[in-house]
Amino acid sequence: MLTERQKLILQAIIENYIHSAEPVGSRTISKRPEITFSSATIRNEMSDLEDLGYLEQPHTSAGRVPSTKGYRFYVDHIVEPNLLKNNVDVSTWKQMFADRILHFENAVEQTASVLSQLTNYTAVVLGPEIFEHRLKHLQIIPLSDTQAVAIIVTQTGRVENKRIDLPTGLSPSDMEKLVNVLNTRLQDTPLWQLRQRLYQEVSDELKRHVNHYEEMLTMISNAIESDSSDRLLLRGTTKFMEQPEFQDVEKVKEILELFERSDQMTHLFETNEKGLQIRIGHENHLDAMKNCSIVTTNYSFNGKPVGTIGILGPTRMEYGKVIAVLDFIALGLSRMLTAQIEGRSSEEQEDS
Fold first, then answer.
1. Which residues, 6+ apart, have CB-to-CB distance to 317 below 8 Å?
2. What angle do CA 126, 269, 132 make, to 5 degrees?
3. The Winged helix-turn-helix transcription repressor HrcA DNA-binding domain covers which part of the protein (predicted)?
4. Which domains, ranges and CATH numbers included, belong to the chain?
5. What is the pLDDT of residues 98-140, one digit of tens each?
6. Closest Cα to residue 1, out of 38, 42, 49?
7. Residue 295 DSSP code
8. What is the pTM of this model?
9. Which uninterrupted H or E stretch holds 136?
């Protein structure tokens, strides 16, 4: 564990490097008002922090830069996520949440732009299915004994086709029963609720009427899985070019190519973990991300995560600012989503 003096020096180095993008020397640190140690003491501590793996010395520079381990310690033990402290102007977005000016669908679409504007990094939003897409009917057309095509048609005329694997021994009569049950029980269901209703309301009926119902559930679950490209909203992709460490186009070529692959971007930002997640450098397990950090959090309905918002930027990221903005936007989206869905449910009950 680091000493209090080492923590203070590490914090000073990281925060100075975040704003300057230049290796930090002991003289620079000694000028900070919170640092009261001599330059010799600072140099010794910086050397120890380097030996411990928290700092790195690029080339022959006299200054140091944070390592992944240094950033990890900083975000886990030091950073202060506070909107006011980080001078984040969220007044306009706060008013939108308060007045509910936006429908949730539009709010999700605009959130990526707002996140990028507030943080000056690339923003990603993984949204739930747009609510007006409700199931009209579902068809399953066999292609062979082992494969079929599932066709989902929505009330708005949208058509989705997906190839699926058939359970072994599935009979035509079971297939017909399955499709009839699904269309009877799931018609007019919003696409984002299909999987939930499949397991909560349809599984018992399938168990009574269809053989191999567990395999059938898995098959249908795969069939109604949302296309990741429909859920991915990406904004501020050129923000990388504004960062000093990414001025060379060749250095960001892999990143720019990654932005064009919606499936990989979705996988990169999807998480089964609740709450704030921070992955730094090689923690992202992609070479293209070795100099980048990804910060994500969920927005929820009834306490259950239904989407993800995130920021992708250099490891030299303003973590306090990013964390504060994500927490604020996630809370606003969650409240807006709850208000929209509960409002719709009330209207539907009144109509019925």
1. 18, 121, 293, 295, 311
2. 10
3. 1-72
4. 4-78 (1.10.10.10), 90-129+229-350 (3.30.450.40), 134-224 (3.30.390.60)
5. 655 455 656 777 788 889 989 999 999 887 644 446 788 999 8
6. 49
7. E
8. 0.71
9. strand 135-142
